[in-house]
Amino acid sequence: MAELKSASMQSAAARLETEAAADDLSAQIAALREDLSKLSESVIAIGQGAKSVVTEEASLATERVREKVREEPLFALAVTAGIAYMIGLLSRR
After folding, report:
1. How far is CA 56 from the centre of its chain?
2. Mean of pLDDT values over 56-76
3. Can you give the pTM of this predicted structure?
């Protein structure tokens, strides 16, 4: 009978340890989910900032090219023809 009580106590202790470990694991998973959520928000913010910077730089580059073409249209035409010729040569291969 004493052995049965001892085994029952060990079983109860093991259940308590298992429940405690499961609760700890649940808490860690919740913390990881929260960290992932914060990380996702940070990545989104960085991406939006990078997008605005790239958009602004592209607009500036486009405007510079337009100004250069207006200032020197023959040079722009010659450069375009040269690039088209090179692409044509490369596409034959």
Report:
1. 21
2. 94
3. 0.51
